[in-house]
Task: inverse folding
């Protein structure tokens, strides 16, 4: 019969392929303090950014890792861009509204993307307003679905921005074009 700590080791070994310490030789305090190593953020470098699907997956994983992956994300996008890279990054900054020229435009765009994703927060229903847990659960689940829908819109918009496009359906730009005297009728 396995002890609780031995079973923990077996379960962890099944989930991730890492070298585990000998739990039987460790004290309870050492076992409790032991944590498996954090996964590397380097898989971000493996995404081909040529398709919308892969750009969205890349942005989603960047969102899940967070700002600690900003350097890796910027390096990967920069490395996969076609020339002229600085101009393309300036365009990204302009399309996203974050500003910046060259690589700074890319950095500011990815920072703004992360901020927008983290700012998605639809109001969560208060438990006291419902007669039953089931009724509350329906509204709570709808709140989570609304959060995901809002994040999907942001992912679509920033995937387009990384591709140098601006989708009018998802754009925050609501300005009107002022026609100047240089345009012929």
Result:
């Amino acid at each position: 019969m396995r002890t609780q700590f031995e079973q923990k080791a077996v379960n962890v070994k099944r989930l991730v392929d890492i070298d585990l310490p000998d739990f039987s030789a460790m004290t309870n305090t050492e076992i409790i303090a032991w944590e498996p190593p954090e996964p590397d953020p380097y898989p971000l470098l493996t995404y081909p950014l040529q398709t919308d699907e892969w750009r969205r997956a890349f942005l989603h994983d960047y969102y899940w890792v967070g700002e600690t992956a900003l350097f890796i994300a910027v390096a990967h996008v920069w490395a996969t861009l076609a020339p002229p890279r600085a101009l393309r990054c300036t365009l990204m900054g302009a399309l996203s509204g974050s500003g910046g020229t060259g690589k700074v435009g890319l950095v500011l765009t990815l920072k703004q993307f992360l901020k927008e994703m983290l700012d998605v927060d639809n109001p969560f229903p208060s438990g006291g307003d419902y007669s039953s847990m089931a009724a509350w659960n329906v509204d709570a689940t709808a709140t989570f679905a609304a959060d995901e829908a809002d994040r999907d819109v942001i992912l679509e918009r920033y995937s387009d921005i990384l591709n140098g496009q601006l989708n009018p359906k998802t754009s925050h730009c609501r300005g009107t074009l002022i026609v100047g005297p240089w345009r012929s009728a």
Summary: Residues 42-162 form one domain. The helical segments are 4-15, 28-33, 52-65, 70-80, 85-96, 103-119, 133-162. The chain has a mean pLDDT of 81. The first helix runs from residue 4 to 15.
